Every structure is written in structure tokens, then in C-alpha cells.
């Protein structure tokens, strides 16, 4: 019986090792690593924008919340001074934080984007994608797309505002009711959002 257990254990260990070797990805060729490095370099501006967005989003939310609080202040001369001071604080934050988070995004990309490309794309597919990303037509398209989005945004906001404002007021009232807020405290955020 002991001999049978030993044979079964050795067989299980051997097949487990064989399965582990089969499941391990083959090491990438130097050519594939070079293609991935080029892909990451081409994507660098997008990665930096992502990092910038991550750094700026909390500051924008904070500014929006501060704007609501400032609208509730009765003294308008102090309100303007405070708003300028907050804007200066936000600029300082952005000047210090955005470059750091941009570089973090670029630094983390090889272990995330690079790994995904290495696992999911072969050399031929990497070459094809890289050719598209580097093509002058695609770069021009990205510029046109950015310009078109900038042109779309004010029109979309103007068109969406009459649809969204009544819904946002209803949502604001519902949330205020659930939070037990009544009167001026509940209506202040909705009024500030209109300006």
C-alpha cells in the first residue's frame, strides 16, 4: 500500500509540474519586447492624459463643492477673495501633482499595458496595431476627433441642460429629503448648480 501511495504521489507531482510548465507563457522574443516598447512610447501621450485626469478629478470635485459653499456665503467681497485663494491652491496642487501622476502612469504602463499586449497579441498583430497608431492619417483623425469633441461639448450641454435640470432638481430634492435636509440648506446646491 505504501508503495502504491508513493507511485501515485510521484505521478501527481510529475504531472503537476508538467501542467505548470505548459501553462507558463513562453518568454517573449527581443523583437516582440521592442514592439511593445514602441507601442508604449506611441501611447505615452494618452497615458500622460490619463495620469493628468486622475490627478485633476479630485481637485475639480473639490472646487465644485467649494463653489456650492461659497454661494451660500452672504458677504460677496469675502466670497470673491476666498474663491481666488482656493483657485490659487488648486493651481499649486495641479502644478505639483499632475507631473507626478503622469510619470506614475507612464511608469506603471509596462507592467499593465505591456503585459497585456505581451500576453494577448503576437508580433504580427503588434506590428499591425503599431502601423495604425503611427500612421499620419490616424494621427490626423485623432486631432479632428479632439476638435470635434470640443465643438460637440457646448452644444451637447446646451441641448442636455433643459432635459437634465428638472431631473437633477428632483434628484436633489429626493436626496435632501432622505437626508432630512429642508428649506435653504436643501435648495442651495440646486441653486448653485444653475449658475
In short:
The protein has 195 residues and is mainly alpha-helical.
Name a few traits of the molecule:
195 residues; 2 domains; disordered C terminus; mainly alpha; 7 helices; disordered N terminus
Structural class: mainly alpha
Order of helices and strands: HHHHHHH
Question: What would the average pLDDT be, to the nearest integer?
Answer: 80
Largest sheet: none
Which segments are poorly predicted (pLDDT under 50) over 5 or more consecutive residues? Answer: 1-15, 17-24, 188-195
Overall, the morphology is: elongated
Give the amount of beta strand, in percent.
Answer: under 5%
Distance, first to last CA:
84 Å
Q: How many E strands?
A: 0
Helical content, roughly? over 70%
How many domains is the backbone divided into?
Answer: 2
Oligomeric category: single chain
The number of helices is 7
* Alpha-carbon Rg, integer: 28 Å
Amino acid at each position: 500500500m505504501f508503495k502504491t501511495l508513493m507511485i501515485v504521489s510521484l505521478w501527481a507531482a510529475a504531472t503537476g509540474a508538467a501542467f505548470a510548465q505548459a501553462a507558463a507563457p513562453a518568454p517573449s522574443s527581443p523583437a516582440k519586447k521592442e514592439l511593445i516598447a514602441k507601442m508604449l512610447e506611441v501611447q505615452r501621450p494618452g497615458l500622460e492624459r490619463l495620469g493628468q485626469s486622475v490627478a485633476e478629478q479630485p481637485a475639480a470635485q473639490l472646487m465644485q463643492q467649494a463653489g456650492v459653499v461659497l454661494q451660500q456665503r452672504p458677504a460677496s467681497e469675502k466670497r470673491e477673495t476666498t474663491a481666488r485663494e482656493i483657485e490659487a491652491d488648486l493651481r499649486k496642487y495641479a502644478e505639483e501633482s499632475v507631473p507626478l501622476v503622469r510619470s506614475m502612469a507612464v511608469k506603471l504602463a509596462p507592467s499593465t499595458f505591456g503585459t497585456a499586449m505581451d500576453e494577448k497579441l503576437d508580433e504580427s498583430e503588434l506590428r499591425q496595431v503599431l502601423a495604425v497608431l503611427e500612421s499620419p492619417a490616424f494621427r490626423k483623425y485623432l486631432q479632428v476627433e479632439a476638435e470635434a469633441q470640443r465643438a460637440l461639448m457646448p452644444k451637447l450641454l446646451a441641448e442636455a441642460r433643459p432635459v437634465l435640470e428638472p431631473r437633477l432638481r428632483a434628484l436633489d430634492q429626493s436626496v435632501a429629503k432622505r437626508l432630512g435636509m429642508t428649506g435653504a440648506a436643501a435648495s442651495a446646491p440646486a441653486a448653485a448648480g444653475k449658475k
